[in-house]
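FW: tagging you since you asked about this chain on Friday. Here's the raw sequence from the shared folder, copied in full. Didn't touch anything.
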Amino acid sequence: MAKLTFITGGARSGKSRLAESLAVAYGEPLGYLATGHAGDGEMAERIARHQARRGAEWQTMEEPLDLAGVLRGHDCYFRAVLVDCVTLWLTNLLLTHDDPARVMEEVRSLADLLPTLQTPVILVSSEVGMGIVPENRLARTFRDLAGEANELLATAADEVYVMFSGLPLKLKG
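HL: got it, structure written out here
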Protein backbone atom coordinates (compact mmCIF):
# COMPACT_ATOMS: atom_id res chain seq x y z
CA MET A 1 0.00 0.00 0.00
CA ALA A 2 1.01 3.58 -0.55
CA LYS A 3 2.77 5.48 2.20
CA LEU A 4 1.36 8.84 1.05
CA THR A 5 -1.94 9.09 -0.80
CA PHE A 6 -3.36 12.36 -2.13
CA ILE A 7 -7.05 12.64 -3.07
CA THR A 8 -8.55 15.69 -4.75
CA GLY A 9 -11.84 16.58 -6.40
CA GLY A 10 -14.78 18.92 -6.20
CA ALA A 11 -17.28 19.45 -3.41
CA ARG A 12 -19.32 16.35 -2.54
CA SER A 13 -17.38 14.25 -5.06
CA GLY A 14 -16.70 11.38 -2.63
CA LYS A 15 -13.16 12.35 -1.61
CA SER A 16 -13.63 11.66 2.09
CA ARG A 17 -15.43 8.34 1.56
CA LEU A 18 -12.60 7.12 -0.69
CA ALA A 19 -9.99 8.30 1.82
CA GLU A 20 -11.78 6.54 4.67
CA SER A 21 -12.01 3.26 2.74
CA LEU A 22 -8.31 3.39 1.86
CA ALA A 23 -7.40 4.12 5.49
CA VAL A 24 -9.56 1.28 6.87
CA ALA A 25 -7.58 -1.17 4.72
CA TYR A 26 -4.54 -0.44 6.91
CA GLY A 27 -6.35 -1.70 10.03
CA GLU A 28 -6.86 -0.15 13.44
CA PRO A 29 -6.10 2.12 15.19
CA LEU A 30 -6.90 4.90 12.73
CA GLY A 31 -6.21 8.61 13.13
CA TYR A 32 -8.34 11.36 11.66
CA LEU A 33 -6.73 14.79 11.57
CA ALA A 34 -9.50 17.37 11.13
CA THR A 35 -8.52 20.87 10.01
CA GLY A 36 -12.00 22.41 10.03
CA HIS A 37 -13.95 23.76 12.96
CA ALA A 38 -17.65 24.32 13.51
CA GLY A 39 -17.89 28.05 12.94
CA ASP A 40 -21.63 27.84 12.28
CA GLY A 41 -24.52 25.39 12.47
CA GLU A 42 -24.14 24.11 8.91
CA MET A 43 -20.47 23.31 9.42
CA ALA A 44 -21.26 21.62 12.74
CA GLU A 45 -23.76 19.43 10.89
CA ARG A 46 -21.16 18.50 8.24
CA ILE A 47 -18.65 17.56 10.93
CA ALA A 48 -21.26 15.46 12.77
CA ARG A 49 -22.11 13.57 9.55
CA HIS A 50 -18.43 12.79 8.94
CA GLN A 51 -17.93 11.61 12.53
CA ALA A 52 -21.02 9.39 12.44
CA ARG A 53 -19.90 7.80 9.17
CA ARG A 54 -16.42 7.04 10.49
CA GLY A 55 -17.45 5.36 13.71
CA ALA A 56 -15.61 4.54 16.93
CA GLU A 57 -12.51 2.96 15.37
CA TRP A 58 -11.20 6.43 14.49
CA GLN A 59 -9.43 8.77 16.91
CA THR A 60 -10.08 12.37 15.88
CA MET A 61 -7.46 15.05 16.36
CA GLU A 62 -8.47 18.64 15.61
CA GLU A 63 -5.73 20.98 14.44
CA PRO A 64 -6.39 24.01 12.23
CA LEU A 65 -2.77 25.12 11.71
CA ASP A 66 0.04 22.77 12.81
CA LEU A 67 -0.48 19.70 10.62
CA ALA A 68 3.22 18.86 10.53
CA GLY A 69 3.51 19.01 14.32
CA VAL A 70 0.52 16.74 14.92
CA LEU A 71 1.62 14.23 12.27
CA ARG A 72 5.18 14.18 13.65
CA GLY A 73 3.89 13.84 17.22
CA HIS A 74 1.62 10.89 16.34
CA ASP A 75 3.98 9.01 14.02
CA CYS A 76 3.84 5.24 14.64
CA TYR A 77 0.78 5.57 16.90
CA PHE A 78 -1.81 4.81 14.21
CA ARG A 79 -1.86 2.30 11.35
CA ALA A 80 -2.85 5.24 9.08
CA VAL A 81 -3.78 8.90 9.43
CA LEU A 82 -6.33 10.67 7.24
CA VAL A 83 -6.01 14.46 6.94
CA ASP A 84 -9.29 16.12 5.96
CA CYS A 85 -8.76 18.58 4.50
CA VAL A 86 -5.80 20.43 3.04
CA THR A 87 -7.89 23.28 1.61
CA LEU A 88 -9.44 24.07 5.01
CA TRP A 89 -5.91 24.05 6.45
CA LEU A 90 -4.82 26.51 3.73
CA THR A 91 -7.81 28.72 4.55
CA ASN A 92 -6.87 28.72 8.23
CA LEU A 93 -3.24 29.57 7.44
CA LEU A 94 -4.12 32.33 4.99
CA LEU A 95 -6.63 33.95 7.34
CA THR A 96 -4.21 33.69 10.27
CA HIS A 97 -1.08 34.98 8.53
CA ASP A 98 -2.42 36.92 5.50
CA ASP A 99 0.85 36.01 3.77
CA PRO A 100 0.74 33.61 0.78
CA ALA A 101 4.53 33.10 0.92
CA ARG A 102 4.31 31.97 4.54
CA VAL A 103 1.44 29.62 3.71
CA MET A 104 3.52 28.00 0.97
CA GLU A 105 6.44 27.64 3.42
CA GLU A 106 4.09 25.62 5.65
CA VAL A 107 3.04 23.48 2.66
CA ARG A 108 6.67 22.85 1.68
CA SER A 109 7.49 21.90 5.28
CA LEU A 110 4.60 19.43 5.29
CA ALA A 111 5.65 18.00 1.92
CA ASP A 112 9.21 17.56 3.22
CA LEU A 113 7.99 15.87 6.43
CA LEU A 114 5.56 13.37 4.88
CA PRO A 115 8.14 11.02 3.29
CA THR A 116 10.01 10.77 6.61
CA LEU A 117 7.00 9.46 8.54
CA GLN A 118 6.52 5.76 9.26
CA THR A 119 2.73 6.06 9.40
CA PRO A 120 0.88 6.07 6.07
CA VAL A 121 -0.91 9.38 5.48
CA ILE A 122 -3.93 10.05 3.28
CA LEU A 123 -4.48 13.70 2.36
CA VAL A 124 -7.84 15.02 1.14
CA SER A 125 -7.90 18.32 -0.72
CA SER A 126 -10.50 20.15 -2.79
CA GLU A 127 -9.90 21.08 -6.39
CA VAL A 128 -10.92 24.73 -6.60
CA GLY A 129 -9.21 25.91 -9.77
CA MET A 130 -11.53 24.54 -12.45
CA GLY A 131 -14.10 27.34 -12.35
CA ILE A 132 -14.22 31.01 -13.22
CA VAL A 133 -11.61 33.50 -12.04
CA PRO A 134 -12.81 34.86 -8.68
CA GLU A 135 -13.65 38.55 -8.55
CA ASN A 136 -11.76 39.46 -5.37
CA ARG A 137 -8.12 39.34 -4.36
CA LEU A 138 -8.54 37.02 -1.37
CA ALA A 139 -10.45 34.43 -3.40
CA ARG A 140 -7.89 34.58 -6.25
CA THR A 141 -5.04 34.25 -3.74
CA PHE A 142 -6.70 31.24 -2.14
CA ARG A 143 -7.41 29.60 -5.50
CA ASP A 144 -3.78 30.03 -6.54
CA LEU A 145 -2.47 28.76 -3.17
CA ALA A 146 -4.71 25.70 -3.35
CA GLY A 147 -3.50 24.92 -6.85
CA GLU A 148 0.17 25.28 -5.87
CA ALA A 149 -0.29 23.27 -2.67
CA ASN A 150 -2.17 20.48 -4.45
CA GLU A 151 0.55 20.28 -7.10
CA LEU A 152 3.32 20.11 -4.50
CA LEU A 153 1.58 17.49 -2.35
CA ALA A 154 0.52 15.39 -5.34
CA THR A 155 4.14 15.38 -6.53
CA ALA A 156 5.25 14.11 -3.12
CA ALA A 157 2.54 11.43 -3.01
CA ASP A 158 2.96 7.76 -3.93
CA GLU A 159 -0.65 7.56 -5.11
CA VAL A 160 -2.93 10.32 -6.40
CA TYR A 161 -6.66 10.12 -7.08
CA VAL A 162 -9.15 12.63 -8.42
CA MET A 163 -12.83 12.11 -7.70
CA PHE A 164 -15.55 12.91 -10.23
CA SER A 165 -19.21 12.27 -9.34
CA GLY A 166 -18.30 9.65 -6.76
CA LEU A 167 -15.92 7.81 -9.10
CA PRO A 168 -12.17 7.70 -8.43
CA LEU A 169 -9.68 8.18 -11.22
CA LYS A 170 -6.17 7.06 -10.26
CA LEU A 171 -3.61 9.50 -11.65
CA LYS A 172 -0.43 8.18 -10.05
CA GLY A 173 0.89 5.06 -8.36
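FW: Strands lie at 4-9, 30-34, 58-62, 80-84, 121-126, 159-164, 167-172.
HL: agreed, and Helices lie at 15-24, 41-54, 67-73, 86-97, 100-113, 137-156.
FW: great, closing this out.
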